[in-house]
Amino acid sequence: MRYKDKHQLAAEWQTLLERTPKPLRQAVETLVESHGDYFADHFYQVMLEDPHASLFLSNEQVEQRLNPSMRRWLKAMFAVDHADFASLVEQQEKVGQVHARIDIPVNLVLNGARQLNRRFISRSTPPSKARCRRGMLRCMSPTISIWPWKL
């Protein structure tokens, strides 16, 4: 169930990204392109090890469908040049509908977002470049948390 019009969400998302300088968005895109496999692998490793999350997953599902889907999702969400924010919102809504249909608890969805954020932090710029790292995180966190549905 959508809680906002998809065009409102698309405009909100676009505004969030436009407030982030393009060089930082490019750094995030490069990070995701370079480490997308690592992010997806870590995400599903944590989920499969979690006794609650693993109830919704199988190794076969992760290997054949979910991990490759996560990699594509990450690339789409963090691409620098988004031509169609409305289609990205629709994609997010479909992901949310799947999560809701199989009754994945909100705490597991939020834990997944936290796991991605932690991995982004661990693979982003070195701590010595704290200002750049904070900027990258300001770009990444809102993108991960764009959920156009009610859970």
From TrEMBL:
Keyword Transferase: yes
Matching InterPro entries: DosC_GS (IPR039435), Globin-like_sf (IPR009050), Globin-sensor_dom (IPR044398), Globin/Proto (IPR012292)
Keyword Magnesium attached: yes
Pfam families referenced in this protein's UniProt entry, alphabetically: Protoglobin (PF11563)
Domain annotation Globin-sensor: ranges: 27-118
Domain of life: Bacteria
Keywords annotated in UniProt: Magnesium, Nucleotide-binding, Transferase
Annotated protein name in UniProt: Globin-sensor domain-containing protein
UniProt organism field: Vreelandella olivaria
